[in-house]
Design goal:
285 residues; alpha/beta; Rossmann fold; 11 helices; 38% helix; globular; hydrolase activity; AB_hydrolase_1; AB_hydrolase_sf
Length: 285
């Protein structure tokens, strides 16, 4: 008999060993980390309204290759809510200042959905700390840059996600609250992703799920083509939160792209397609 969503979610969480907070000019960032494994650090940044839980399987897979830091941004998860909505540049500067204060260098920054925007800003503001950037399910497609259209795409995505994914997203949204979501969503939708991403000078990997209605294949390719050193890949059979359902495949792609190793250990809640090939521009790594 299938386990209920909450049981599956608990089993999918990684052995993160410490939780810290970082405060900068009134904003608090929560960081859950495991540094028991040496190697390149991975920093995982979540999307709007959610928190660290949906990164559980991916964090577990990446822990076999290096230390992992999973953040919770202000206003989401357990992080205190700011008074006003934050521009992505401010979220990015918070990550950048935490990286600098923590002495983290050559990091692999991974952002999902709105988190991809935050990763772009952090990488632009503190490029010395970022070796590679990974953008998963990036928003917002310039062809659909309105809040009603994005709400429709989100509703479509719920029909394609697994029940435990929908449980995580729904309960995290409730915890975040509609007030903050409605404040922050217009900022996310209006963010000029192509313009900002074009300034990145480190290698960037753009990932999306095959059945993701929020980040289309055309949009993901256009994003990759905008970035000087980039590659892109589509995760088969996955929707917007595909890195939760099949963590081994994106983890293997990430460590391959970053030149760390080929493949990762299989983990609970993660299967592997194997034989994945990155597509990119001629100069992409």
């Amino acid at each position: 008999m299938p386990r209920p969503p909450r049981s599956r979610i608990r089993r999918a969480q990684p052995p993160l060993t410490r939780t810290t907070t970082f405060t900068d000019d009134g904003l608090t960032l929560i960081v859950k980390e495991s540094v028991s494994v040496s190697g390149r650090p991975f920093v995982l940044v979540h999307g709007i309204g959610v928190a660290s839980r949906y990164y559980g399987p991916l964090a577990t897979a990446l822990l076999t290759r290096g230390p992992v830091f999973v953040v919770e941004l202000p206003g989401m998860g357990a992080a205190p809510e700011p008074r006003d909505p934050l521009p992505m540049a401010r979220y990015g500067s918070l990550i950048a200042r935490w990286l600098e204060a923590s002495g983290i260098t050559d990091a692999v920054l991974v952002g999902h959905s709105m988190g991809a925007q935050v990763v772009v800003e952090a990488a632009l503001q503190h490029p010395a700390a970022v070796g590679h950037a990974v953008l998963i399910g990036t928003v917002t497609d310039v062809a659909e840059q309105t809040l009603p259209r994005q709400m429709l795409r989100l509703a479509q995505d719920t029909l394609r996600e697994r029940p435990d994914v929908n449980w995580i997203v729904a309960t995290d949204y409730l915890r975040c609250g509609p007030r903050w979501m409605l404040k922050q969503a217009p900022v996310m939708v209006a963010y000029p992703m192509l313009e900002r991403a074009a300034g990145l000078r480190m290698p960037v990997l753009a990932l999306r799920g095959e059945h993701d209605p929020i980040c289309s294949e055309a949009w993901n390719r256009r994003l990759a083509e905008t970035i000087p050193d980039s590659a892109h890949h589509t995760l088969k059979r996955q929707a917007h939160v595909g890195m939760y359902v099949d963590a081994a495949t994106p983890a293997a792609l990430i460590v391959q792209f970053a030149g760390i190793a080929i493949g990762v250990d299989e983990t609970v809640e993660a299967g592997s397609d194997g034989g994945v090939v990155l597509e990119g521009r001629a100069g992409a790594r």
